Amino acid sequence: MSFSPSETVRIDKWLWCVRLFKTRAAATAACRAGSVLINDTPVKPARELRSGELVHVRQGLVTRTLRFLGTPASRVAAKKVPEFCDDLTPEEELAKARRAPVQQFLAREKGSGRPTKRDRRQLDQLLGRD
């Protein structure tokens, strides 16, 4: 695995290489949607990333903050990701990610009406209420 801190790389490719997105197409779509910022400026997928730049990536409720350190030759293993970026994401943002699965599970589909007595009992049982 070779990398050079002075090299530049496309932002969409780098996001895929450091495992922020499952596919490069998903990383490209996030850039086009304005979910990726470099130094607080929205970027296009072909934007070249340089050493030391701050990258902000909005994924759902969470905004991840990373510092670019190097260019991987290809997609890297999860254990090697810290060699190519510093994760500067605040703890408050990570707490949002921990709360999100419960909130999504409890959300009801719009137009489905009020929960039935059976639905409420199942929710109470799931949440450990008596």
Can you walk me through this structure?
A hairpin with a 2-residue loop joins strand 2 and strand 3. The strands form two sheets. The chain has a five-stranded antiparallel β-sheet with strand order 3-2-5-6-7. A two-stranded antiparallel ribbon has the order 1-4. The protein is elongated. It is α+β, with helices and mostly antiparallel strands and 130 residues long. It contains four helices and seven strands; from the N terminus they run βααββββββαα. The longest helix is centred in the last third of the chain and has 16 residues. 18% of the residues are buried. The protein folds into two domains: 81 residues, RNA-binding S4 domain (Structural Genomics Hypothetical 15.5 Kd Protein In mrcA-pckA Intergenic Region, Chain A, Roll); 32 residues, no CATH class. The N and C termini lie far apart (55 Å). The model has no long low-confidence stretch (mean pLDDT 86).
